[in-house]
């Protein structure tokens, strides 16, 4: 792993030793999860969705009342950490190139102190490659309330990618304890599909005589607007595919021709079962969605 620190967020990035401590014990990222972050994918040294990630980081930071480092500063931090990182890892099945996972976080800092940011670069883990290859079974889990109700309540940080992922991780643990590999949140009232614990939900309807149609839940309804889903939809639209936003219900996933969890590092992960019911996967479509996401031909 390699790391750079931007402290304060308006300052210059500096390369740091990731093996050394850099966070104070009273830092509010640590004590309260009070901060925001982005996870990016780097392919052959290029963060191909950088602008979308920086825009979402700025939106998250703005709603949370935090300053964000400029795109130029983040790019400089990324370049120096990538330089110091190892060669990355390779997905032998997909053969996309050298892959790195990048995490860019902003903390409110110590009480009375200054917000600061840091960036880490690591090889993409083997579990991500396995998920792309083998897919995941999911459990639909009640989100407890409809996040659309939070949309006008900025203190609930609607659609913000906060550092407080304890609930998301608890959902994945719950799914695993109950025989599935990942979790998808639904509303309690009408069981509308929201998003995965760390991903967006995309499904496809195919007809022999027409281009496939991709569907995803409405991003404006209190869920995180996924940069991967957006990139896939933009490219699919340019290829003449149909693209549409939900609402989607469990039945839509069970009757779809294929369903994926999309996210920046795992890319397009096929869903193999929903609540114990097997659903079809489509390896050709999965490859196409992956190419839509990372760019094909690459560049
Ligand atoms: N929804 C949630 C809750 C997430 O945590 C993530 C990614 O971490 C996503 C959706 C997908 O976002 P992206 O495609 O930008 O990685």
From TrEMBL:
It holds the Pfam family Aminotran_4. InterPro entries: Aminotrans_IV, Aminotransferase-like, BCAT-like_C, BCAT-like_N, Class-IV_PLP-Dep_Aminotrnsfr. GO terms for cellular component: cytosol. GO terms for molecular function: lyase activity. The keyword Manganese does not apply. It comes from the Bacteria. This is Aminodeoxychorismate lyase. It comes from Kocuria tytonis.
């Amino acid at each position: 792993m390699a790391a750079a620190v931007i402290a304060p967020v308006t300052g210059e990035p500096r390369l740091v030793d990731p093996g050394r401590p850099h966070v104070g014990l009273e830092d509010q990222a640590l004590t309260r999860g009070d901060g925001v972050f982005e996870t990016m994918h780097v392919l052959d040294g290029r963060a191909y969705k950088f602008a979308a990630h920086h825009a979402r980081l700025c939106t998250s930071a703005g709603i949370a009342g935090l300053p964000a480092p400029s795109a130029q500063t983040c790019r400089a931090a990324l370049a120096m950490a990538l330089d110091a990182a190892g060669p990355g890892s390779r997905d032998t099945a997909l053969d996309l190139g050298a892959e790195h996972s990048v995490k860019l976080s902003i903390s409110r800092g110590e009480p009375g102190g200054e917000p600061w940011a840091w960036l880490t670069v690591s090889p993409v883990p083997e579990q991500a490659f396995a998920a792309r290859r083998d897919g995941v079974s999911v459990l639909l889990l009640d989100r407890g309330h409809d996040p659309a109700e939070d949309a006008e309540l900025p203190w609930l940080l609607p659609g913000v990618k906060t550092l407080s992922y304890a609930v998301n991780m608890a959902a994945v643990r719950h799914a695993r304890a109950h025989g599935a590999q990942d979790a998808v949140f639904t509303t309690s009232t009408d069981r509308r599909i929201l998003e995965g614990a760390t991903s967006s939900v995309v499904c496809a309807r195919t007809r022999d005589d027409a281009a496939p149609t991709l569907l995803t839940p409405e991003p404006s309804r209190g869920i995180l607007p996924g940069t991967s889903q957006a990139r896939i939809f933009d490219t699919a639209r340019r290829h003449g595919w149909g693209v549409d936003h939900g609402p989607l219900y469990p039945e839509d996933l069970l009757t779809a021709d294929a369903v994926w969890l999309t996210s920046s590092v795992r890319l397009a992960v096929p869903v193999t079962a929903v609540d114990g019911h097997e659903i079809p996967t489509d390896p050709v479509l999965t490859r196409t969605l992956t190419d839509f996401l990372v760019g094909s031909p690459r560049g």
